[in-house]
């Protein structure tokens, strides 16, 4: 990043302005994207090497508001938000009933699969951990969300045969799929939402078993860059996403939105198959 003591204000060329306006007025998504081949990153990428002890305390927020880096991030966020406004995301979400993309009919073979990014972030247990370190030679069901509706989407995939495998009946999940684990990645959309989330940590802890506290990441949105979101097809913040990863961080299967009966059966068939896979 080019750091300067004084940030000059430059006007955009007319062509750039018209391009931005066109992006802002683009039509909302009307059809789900069918997943027919592996997607993700071409190789493992570590998005950040270190993070401050607390991203959302008052000191960090003040730095975000006043620093050159903070202003640059906000400008990039503004450019991105113009293309992905709350109205655009909400309309797209409603048009496809949350299904930003539909899942593949089977999981991808490991040799053809692409990668989910690695990162270092704070967990619900208060530790700064790397996602890839947590993968631990297990199959990981990774829930990614930024909003309440997104979390509701992913939670709908854990209502199986009258059980709640996400929370209340997590022990049943562990018994049935001993080589698997559940990982949550909560990406607050702004420093303000991150600050509010930080205030509700105790409530979050009541939602999941204590054994999963260090499997629940709070990932600042400035780390989860737009290019990465686009490659993972998770730019719409209203929806929730599930990525089934192997121990090397490869995306073997994925889905989005609320579960359907067919999707629910398919996901757990995939999890069962990967649970028995040797890798």
Automatic annotation (TrEMBL):
Residues passing through the membrane, by range: none
Gene3D superfamilies: Glutaredoxin (3.40.30.10)
Protein name per the record: Mitochondrial ATPase complex subunit ATP10
Pfam families attached to this UniProt entry: ATP-synt_10 (PF05176)
GO biological process annotation, one example: mitochondrial proton-transporting ATP synthase complex assembly
InterPro entries from the UniProt entry: ATP10 (IPR007849), Thioredoxin-like_sf (IPR036249)
Species whose genome carries this gene: Spathaspora passalidarum (strain NRRL Y-27907 / 11-Y1)
Gene Ontology CC terms: mitochondrial inner membrane
């Amino acid at each position: 990043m080019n750091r300067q003591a004084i940030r000059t204000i430059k006007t955009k060329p007319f062509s750039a302005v018209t391009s931005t306006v066109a992006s802002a007025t683009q039509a909302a998504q009307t059809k789900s994207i069918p997943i027919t081949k592996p997607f993700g990153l071409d190789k493992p990428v570590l998005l950040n090497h270190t993070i401050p002890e607390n991203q959302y305390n008052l000191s960090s927020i003040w730095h975000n508001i006043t620093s050159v880096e903070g202003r640059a991030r906000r400008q990039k966020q503004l450019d991105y938000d113009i293309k992905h406004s709350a109205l655009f995301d909400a309309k797209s979400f409603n048009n496809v009933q949350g299904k930003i993309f539909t899942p593949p009919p089977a999981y991808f073979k490991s040799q053809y699969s692409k990668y989910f990014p690695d990162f270092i972030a704070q967990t619900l247990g208060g530790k700064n951990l790397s996602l890839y370190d947590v993968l631990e030679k297990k199959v990981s069901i990774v829930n990614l969300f930024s909003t309440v509706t997104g979390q509701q989407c992913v939670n709908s995939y854990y209502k199986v045969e009258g059980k709640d495998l996400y929370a209340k009946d997590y022990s049943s999940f562990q018994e049935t799929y001993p080589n698997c684990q559940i990982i949550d990645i909560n990406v607050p959309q702004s420093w303000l939402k991150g600050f509010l989330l930080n205030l509700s940590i105790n409530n979050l802890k009541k939602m999941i078993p204590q054994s999963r506290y260090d499997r629940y990441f709070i990932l600042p949105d400035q780390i989860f860059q737009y290019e990465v979101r686009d490659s993972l097809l998770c730019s719409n913040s209203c929806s929730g996403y599930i990525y089934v990863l192997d121990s090397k961080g490869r995306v073997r299967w994925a889905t989005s939105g609320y579960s359907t009966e067919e999707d629910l059966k398919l996901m757990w068939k995939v999890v069962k198959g990967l649970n028995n896979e040797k890798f």
